[in-house]
Specification:
11 strands; single chain; seven-stranded mixed sheet; four-stranded antiparallel sheet; mainly beta; 55% strand
Length: 117
């Protein structure tokens, strides 16, 4: 079982910055971040950004140019730098990891990001 431990998040004013980090217990192919407007089960999680082991990145259109995802393979860590934050970025952010070989998906516990206007 892969464990994902998140840190970062919090409250910031619009235009500000926050950084999220996630450490995986083992090396894993794809790591990224999803967000969910609330923790209610009916809410779907939407991709924010993801990065592969060879540093190929994918971003949601809504965050391109504002967020930067990076990973440190030696430390099994993925970081999301969020700049120029907007109130609509407010959500619970979940670290995500995907094992391509086993087709397994893993989730962190979620961290709240709140952007005030």
């Amino acid at each position: 079982q892969v464990q994902l431990v998140e840190s970062g998040g919090g409250l910031v004013q619009a235009g500000g910055s926050l950084r999220l980090s996630c450490v995986a217990s083992v090396s894993i192919d794809v790591m990224g971040w999803y967000r969910q407007v609330s923790r209610n089960e009916g809410q779907q999680r939407a991709l924010v950004a993801r990065v592969t082991e060879n540093n190929s990145t994918t971003y949601a259109d809504s965050v391109k140019g504002r967020f930067t995802i990076s990973r440190d393979n030696a430390k099994n860590t993925v970081t999301l730098q969020m700049d120029s934050l907007k109130p609509e970025d407010t959500a619970v952010y979940y670290c995500n990891a995907f094992d391509i070989t086993r087709r397994n998906v893993y989730w962190g516990q979620g961290t709240q990001v709140t952007v005030s206007s």
